[in-house]
From TrEMBL:
Annotated HTH deoR-type domain residues: 3-58
Protein name: DeoR family transcriptional regulator
InterPro entries on file: Carb_Metab_HTH_regulators, DeoR-like_C, DeoR_HTH, NagB/RpiA_transferase-like, Tscrpt_reg_HTH_DeoR_CS, WH-like_DNA-bd_sf, WH_DNA-bd_sf
Keywords assigned by UniProt, alphabetized: DNA-binding, Repressor, Transcription, Transcription regulation
The keyword Transferase is assigned to this record: no
One Gene Ontology MF term: DNA-binding transcription factor activity
UniProt keyword annotation of RNA-binding present: no
Pfam families: DeoRC, HTH_DeoR
SUPFAM superfamilies in the record: NagB/RpiA/CoA transferase-like, Winged helix' DNA-binding domain
């Protein structure tokens, strides 16, 4: 790739997955990690990404009060949020991860809804707090400055004590063969605990992340009950997931 093409690819991956690893980009583009680090530095100096140790973050992912910057594929995320909100009933206990799609869900909740929302995501908690009739439980522990979410053994132990009606997961990659995958080890541990602590597991993702793979495994596809994208349920891209017994919305 030419430098311009390489940096455009990197920027797209940052926007799509919110966080990227230099080592993974090096493998995908087939250039040295030093080249990737220089590209990330230039993109950061241009204000397009946030460079962190081992990779980069998108601006929207890094904001506590978002969006200070445009959120990637925000219109599609709003469609997903509307579909997800329709699954929530009064008096439910709802467990959520973090991510920009989860934030859209928080903003889409009906004003008359009476439910309890539990999360370790600081941006999500701040949005839930704006709702007039839902109860909010913060799952606390050490805070990841990158992902703006509580992480660590105490947070996982608290999640394991929960018996939620619904768990909404904003996901980074999904594939029929490899299941749900991510690129952040500590966030993966949280999501694994969330999956174990809910009766129904719902994955929220824009369609660009369908049939993609990240390096760390969260769960097999069979552990997921519902997959929500911006696509119509009969879209051919969703058929392999429906064939696995997953409800697609």
């Amino acid at each position: 790739m030419l430098k311009k093409e390489r940096q455009a690819y990197i920027l797209h991956q940052v926007n799509l997955h919110n966080k990227v690893l230099s080592s993974l980009l090096s493998q995908e583009i087939r250039v040295s990690e030093d080249t990737i680090r220089r590209d990330l530095q230039e993109l950061a100096e241009e204000g397009k990404i946030i460079k962190v140790h081992g990779g980069a973050l998108s601006h929207s992912f890094n904001e506590v009060h978002y969006p200070a910057y445009d959120v990637y594929s925000q219109d599609n995320k709003k469609i997903i949020a509307q579909k997800a909100a329709a699954l929530i009933q009064n008096d439910m206990f709802v467990l959520t991860s973090g991510g920009t799609t989860i934030i859209e869900l928080a903003r889409t909740l009906p004003r008359q809804l009476k439910a309890t929302f539990m999360s370790g995501s600081i941006p999500a908690i701040l949005e839930y707090m704006q709702h007039p009739t839902i109860d909010v439980i913060m799952i606390g522990d050490r805070i990841s400055k990158n992902s703006k979410i509580t992480i660590g053994a105490e947070a996982i132990a608290k999640i394991k004590q929960i018996n939620a009606d619904l768990c909404f997961l904003g996901i980074n990659a999904i594939d029929v063969k490899h299941g749900i995958t991510d690129n952040d080890w500590e966030v993966v541990q949280l999501k694994k605990a969330m999956i174990q602590s809910a009766r129904k597991k719902v994955c929220l993702t824009i369609s660009e992340k369908i049939d993609t793979l990240q390096p760390i495994h969260i769960c097999d596809i069979q552990r997921i009950d519902v997959l929500i994208t911006e696509l119509p349920p009969d879209d051919p891209r969703l058929k392999p997931y429906a064939d696995q017994g997953i409800q697609v919305l």
